[in-house]
Protein backbone atom coordinates (compact mmCIF):
# COMPACT_ATOMS: atom_id res chain seq x y z
CA UNK A 1 0.00 0.00 0.00
CA UNK A 2 1.44 3.35 -1.05
CA UNK A 3 1.10 6.72 0.62
CA UNK A 4 -0.89 9.53 -0.97
CA UNK A 5 -0.60 13.30 -0.63
CA UNK A 6 -3.90 15.09 -0.05
CA UNK A 7 -5.25 18.40 -1.31
CA UNK A 8 -4.07 20.11 1.86
CA UNK A 9 -0.45 19.84 0.63
CA UNK A 10 1.31 23.22 0.75
CA UNK A 11 4.17 22.14 -1.58
CA UNK A 12 6.75 23.01 1.07
CA UNK A 13 9.22 20.37 -0.17
CA UNK A 14 9.95 18.79 3.20
CA UNK A 15 8.84 15.31 2.11
CA UNK A 16 10.97 15.13 -1.04
CA UNK A 17 14.25 15.04 0.88
CA UNK A 18 12.93 12.28 3.16
CA UNK A 19 11.87 9.83 0.44
CA UNK A 20 14.57 7.13 0.09
CA UNK A 21 13.32 6.00 -3.34
CA UNK A 22 12.59 9.42 -4.88
CA UNK A 23 8.90 8.58 -5.40
CA UNK A 24 7.67 12.16 -4.81
CA UNK A 25 7.24 14.66 -7.65
CA UNK A 26 6.94 18.42 -7.26
CA UNK A 27 3.89 20.43 -8.30
CA UNK A 28 1.19 22.67 -6.85
CA UNK A 29 0.31 19.59 -4.84
CA UNK A 30 3.08 17.02 -4.62
CA UNK A 31 2.43 13.51 -5.93
CA UNK A 32 3.73 10.12 -4.80
CA UNK A 33 4.30 7.48 -7.48
CA UNK A 34 2.57 4.38 -6.05
CA UNK A 35 4.79 2.08 -8.11
CA UNK A 36 7.94 3.47 -6.48
CA UNK A 37 6.61 4.05 -2.95
CA UNK A 38 7.86 1.44 -0.46
CA UNK A 39 5.34 2.40 2.25
CA UNK A 40 8.09 3.48 4.66
CA UNK A 41 6.14 6.49 5.97
CA UNK A 42 9.13 8.81 6.17
CA UNK A 43 7.30 11.49 4.18
CA UNK A 44 4.22 11.37 6.42
CA UNK A 45 6.40 11.66 9.53
CA UNK A 46 7.87 15.01 8.39
CA UNK A 47 4.83 16.63 6.71
CA UNK A 48 4.10 19.83 8.68
CA UNK A 49 0.43 19.91 7.62
CA UNK A 50 -0.21 16.15 7.91
CA UNK A 51 -1.25 15.95 4.24
CA UNK A 52 0.28 12.50 3.63
CA UNK A 53 -1.65 9.37 4.50
CA UNK A 54 -1.65 5.66 3.59
CA UNK A 55 -3.79 5.05 0.52
Keywords:
two-stranded antiparallel ribbon, 4 strands, alpha+beta, Alpha-Beta Plaits, about 55 residues
Outline the structure in words:
It is a single chain. This protein has 55 residues and is an alpha+beta fold. The protein has a single domain (3-54), classed as Alpha-Beta Plaits (2-Layer Sandwich), CATH 3.30.70.20. Helix content is 18%, strand content 18%. The chain contains two helices and four strands. The strands form two sheets. The protein has a two-stranded antiparallel ribbon. It has a two-stranded antiparallel ribbon with strand order 2-3. A hairpin with a 5-residue loop joins strand 2 (24-25) and strand 3. The longest helix is centred in the first third of the chain and has 5 residues, at 14-18. The mean pLDDT is 96.
What share of the residues does DSSP label as strand, in percent? 15-25%
Low-confidence residue ranges: none
Q: Choose one word for the global shape.
A: globular
CATH-scheme architecture: 2-Layer Sandwich
Average the pLDDT over all residues and give the rounded result: 96
How many β strands by DSSP?
A: 4
Tally the helices: what do you get? 2
CATH overall fold name:
Alpha-Beta Plaits
Helix content: 10-25%
Distance between the termini: 6 Å
Q: How many structural units, i.e. domains?
A: 1
The CATH C-level name is Alpha Beta
Q: Which sequence of SSEs, written as H and E, runs from N to C?
A: EHEEHE
Amino acid sequence: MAYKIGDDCTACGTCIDECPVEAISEGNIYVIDPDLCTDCGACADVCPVEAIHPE
